[in-house]
Amino acid sequence: MSGCGRPAASKAGRDTAKVERVVDGDTLEVTLNGHKEKVRLIGIDTPETKKPNTPVMYYGKEASDFTKKKLQGKTVELEWDVDRKDRYDRLLAYVWLEGEMFNRTLVQEGYARMATFPPNVKYVDLFKKDQEQARSQEKGLWKNYEAAFGKPPSEADSRSGSKASGK
């Protein structure tokens, strides 16, 4: 145990949690310090599958299924940035599994686009690079971006860090 009664983080700035349920491609329910919490992955956005009054978007089911396959029931590390919660009271985290940041994996494999919300921009340059590569290779949702999200981001958006709507 570390000071203040908090469990020791497995790496500096990370806390260990168990993924109890995958809500969709970028939202999880975890047990953290004995409490159930909803976690929204920082810096990315997957196509919607569970948003009220919104149809399932192109590549949303694939993103959700991929996240479920990789994270359901697993022990992960949660890394925090500046803001720890969003307006929906979900924890905001970079999710690490076996030494790899899962947020990046989703972008690299075409299951997610980058979506930056300052001040949580610690890894924005990595997400930009990952997105540009996935886009150029037409991986996943990049095969038909407009079906997933509408108008594709311009190169300027890609460089500045496009913002996506919250869930």
List the helices and strands and how they pair.
Layout: E1 14-24, E2 27-32, E3 35-41, E4 44-45, H1 60-71, E5 75-79, E6 91-97, E7 100-101, H2 102-108, E8 113-114, H3 124-136, H4 145-149, H5 155-160
Parallel strand pairs: 3-6
Antiparallel strand pairs: 1-2, 1-5, 2-3, 4-8, 5-6, 6-7
Keywords:
167 residues, OB fold (Dihydrolipoamide Acetyltransferase, E2P), two-stranded antiparallel ribbon, 8 strands, disordered N terminus
Describe, in plain words, how this protein is organized in 3D.
26% of the residues lie in helices and 25% in strands. The protein has a 5-stranded mixed beta barrel with strand order 1-2-3-6-5. The chain has a two-stranded antiparallel sheet with strand order 4-8. 36% of the residues are buried. Residues 1-9 and 156-167 have low confidence and may be disordered. It has helices spanning 60-71, 102-108, 124-136, 145-149, 155-160; strands spanning 14-24, 27-32, 35-41, 44-45, 75-79, 91-97, 100-101, 113-114. The protein contains 5 helices and 8 strands; from the N terminus they run E-E-E-E-H-E-E-E-H-E-H-H-H. It has one domain: OB fold (Dihydrolipoamide Acetyltransferase, E2P).
